[in-house]
């Protein structure tokens, strides 16, 4: 096994780690990036399945994601708008399919009023709690000890209103059951997007895509770093002291002054830290976990829903596929739908055979789009829970009480070891934008310490 010397070793070649490496090298520090997979990108992965280009992980760009937008411009990557012309579709608890326009679902007038009231209330709480230090709010512990579902039940007796509001955080973002995380965690999720309203506005949060796929961001960053990126090199052991680190991977050992761990928190325990991390760090990591979601890709000969005047935007907290969208690639004559199956519903269908699961999911899509949805020419399920070096999606969040208890220390360096991942971001939390922001901030912190 070879050994090399660098100023900084970065563990993980996702958008965050590669951004940090790029910033560090621009400042004159030498780097080595060690990636466990045989590719770069982490939870960004553009792949070709049965002749169709599919974005298996993150893919959307919203107007508030200024760090990502700046990176796309720097890398010369073009974007295009998600197709959104025509009506959206909502399916009620009774299975009634209704077409609608706008952001508020076509529910009873009283339910719509309750949804709008709750959105306004949540926007006020988001602004009050903030995004950078929600754990420092005067009522943080109180907000962190009540689950998202329990808080909603306290606010309204309208079951459909709270089911729909819950959807925007639980199934759509954290991909966990509403009873398993706190109001404070929900407020952080909304604050990271600018407001709860932004999570409701599909045309805002799912605005654009990158021509050729979002994985081009880490690919281009890695290309510029050249031989300093080492693939198929999972770090097994990280020895550290006040004077530096030694990262032992399968094919190379990197001795460096600093280390950046740029992987999801649920993977920290895959590294043998010597000496062990502080006791509170171990405790904190046990209270962070990723959710579970199946991202379903269904490609058809044509985008048939457009002929019916549908945008393909579809929602229902009562359907197996709780949301779906037109995901047709740039200038592709075929039509692609993308849908999502989250948390306990994903548990249920993973008990089925692949054939039964496909039938159940396509049947759910047909409730939105009609029988033509039953017969795609390409069908694929992105299952990040089975990915050895991810083990869930989309990002890590705390269990009840965890955010107020540990949030203030989640990004605190341990000696020469720094932490950088979208899972720890404020703005852009669990998005590529947050990964880039966190990577840049971590690089700046190391540069400042190095120059001190």
From TrEMBL:
Pfam families: Amino_oxidase (PF01593). Keywords: Oxidoreductase. It comes from the Bacteria. Substrate binds at residue 340. InterPro entries: Amino_oxidase (IPR002937), FAD/NAD-bd_sf (IPR036188), Flavin_amine_oxidase (IPR001613), Flavin_MAO (IPR050703). Residues 16-447 form the Amine oxidase domain. Its cofactor is FAD. GO terms for molecular function: oxidoreductase activity. SUPFAM superfamilies: FAD-linked reductases, C-terminal domain, FAD/NAD(P)-binding domain. FAD binds at residues 16, 35-36, 235. Belongs to the flavin monoamine oxidase family. This is Putrescine oxidase. It comes from Plantibacter flavus.
